[in-house]
């Protein structure tokens, strides 16, 4: 049989994950179909995704009605709902996890985003989620804020799988890799088994261009406008270069000798926000070995229809470095761009979480009545 485009993409060494989860997707067979037809080997979620899932339809009403008499706290209600989805998805993907030796088959579940600047509460919540859905193919998502870095290191040292989310800057990515390596070193030093630990570093891609393009358009010069739509891909290419450099050499070779796995780069937020850009831009330009691209359903569908597969990620690194100088020359502070995006990203997830809890609380009240 002829390979479809996502099968060809997977053969380049890039794993296809879907950036969506809902009970309808699970119980309607949609996720199983995408695993079979679209080479999907992982699932990521976040508060915004769950907020949309709970708000649409009545798939959660039966469980909410069952819990309404015993659970009052909207957050605890949400965790009960999402835990069932996450556990079912983990079980569905477990054969993938086993067949790939723990490389793929993961489902991500995010800690409370209101804890993003609290190391201890993030760590406690991450431990709680891992205990609740006790599966070897669960990733708990922790934002890559400054306090989050400490919680990430602590969780890795405890032997837990972590999806490090909301990475925008190369400097923060360097710190994420260091937190991962230190966590592994602590785990090994305490006699733990690093073979059971998996982690991905999730770079948010399209939002970088959205923010940078707005600044370039505000400047408005010909030189500035010519740089639109380029920073997100350049940022990711340089991150991948750092990944290749970090997971090599004596320090890494010692950990790899103990069975440790490299922390793969994951490209998130890969739907194209600007309709002037190709709708599969952030897939086609970021194809490389030992990486993950987590796509929303519409991007998966678009790539299957007209995506072009070629090893692009390791190409154009020199141009990517030069772009940062070009942006500075026209007046765009890339560090400020990424700091703004991190703060906005945390706030957006916190806002979605608040909307989600209000939605769950409202449905609980209506069903109880």
Could you characterize the architecture of this molecule?
Strand 4 (138-143), helix 8 (146-157) and strand 5 (162-167) form a beta-alpha-beta unit. This protein is of the alpha/beta class. It has 17 helices and eight strands. It has helices at residues 5-11, 23-27, 30-37, 47-55, 61-68, 74-99, 119-132, 146-157, 170-189, 206-219, 222-225, 231-246, 249-257, 281-284, 297-306, 317-330, 334-368; strands at 14-18, 40-43, 106-110, 138-143, 162-167, 199-204, 264-268, 291-295. The longest helix has 35 residues, at 334-368. Helix content is 58%, strand content 11%. The radius of gyration is 20 Å and the shape is globular. It has a single domain (5-368), classed as TIM Barrel (Alpha-Beta Barrel), CATH 3.20.20. The protein has an eight-stranded parallel barrel, surrounded by ten helices.
Features of this protein?
369 residues, 17 helices, alpha/beta, 58% helix, 8-stranded parallel barrel, single chain
Label the CATH architecture: Alpha-Beta Barrel
Structural class: alpha/beta
Distance between the termini: 55 Å
Q: How are the strands of the largest sheet arranged?
A: 1-2-3-4-5-6-7-8
CATH class wording: Alpha Beta
Shape: globular
Return the domain count. Answer: 1
Strand-residue fraction?
5-15%
What fold name stands as the CATH topology?
Answer: TIM Barrel
Number of helical elements: 17
- Oligomerization: single chain
Computed CA radius of gyration, to the nearest angstrom: 20 Å
């Amino acid at each position: 049989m002829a390979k479809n485009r996502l099968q060809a993409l997977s053969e380049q060494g890039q794993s296809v994950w879907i950036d969506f989860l809902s009970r309808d997707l699970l119980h309607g067979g949609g996720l199983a179909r995408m695993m079979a037809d679209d080479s999907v080997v992982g699932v990521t979620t976040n508060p915004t995704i769950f907020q949309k899932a709970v708000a649409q339809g009545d798939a959660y009403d039966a469980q909410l009605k069952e819990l309404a008499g015993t659970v009052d706290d909207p957050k605890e209600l949400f965790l009960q709902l999402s835990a069932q989805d996450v556990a079912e998805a983990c079980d569905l993907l477990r054969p993938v996890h086993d067949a790939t030796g723990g490389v793929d088959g993961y489902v991500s579940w995010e800690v409370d985003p209101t804890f993003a600047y609290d190391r201890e509460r993030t760590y406690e919540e991450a431990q709680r989620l891992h205990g609740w859905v006790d599966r070897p193919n669960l990733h708990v998502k922790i934002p890559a804020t400054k306090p989050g870095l400490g919680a990430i290191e602590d969780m890795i040292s405890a032997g837990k799988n972590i999806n490090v989310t909301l990475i925008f800057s190369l400097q923060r990515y360097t710190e994420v890799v260091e937190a991962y390596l230190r966590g592994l070193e602590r785990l090994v030093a305490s006699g733990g088994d690093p073979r059971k630990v998996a982690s991905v570093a999730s770079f948010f891609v399209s939002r970088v261009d959205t923010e940078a393009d707005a600044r370039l358009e505000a400047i408005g010069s010909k030189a500035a406008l010519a740089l639109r739509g380029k920073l997100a891909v350049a940022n990711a290419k340089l991150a991948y270069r750092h990944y290749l450099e970090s997971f090599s050499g004596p320090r890494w070779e010692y950990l790899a000798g103990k069975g440790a796995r490299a922390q793969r780069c994951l490209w998130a937020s890969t739907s194209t926000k600007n309709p002037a850009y190709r709708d599969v831009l952030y897939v086609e330009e970021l194809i490389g070995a030992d990486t993950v691209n987590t796509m929303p359903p519409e991007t998966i569908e678009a790539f299957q229809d007209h995506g072009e597969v070629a090893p692009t990620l390791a190409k154009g690194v020199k141009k990517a470095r030069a772009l940062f100088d070009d942006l500075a020359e026209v007046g765009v502070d890339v560090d400020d761009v990424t700091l703004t995006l991190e703060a906005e990203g945390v706030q957006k997830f916190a806002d979605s979480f608040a909307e989600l809890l209000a939605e769950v609380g409202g449905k609980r009240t209506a069903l109880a009545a």
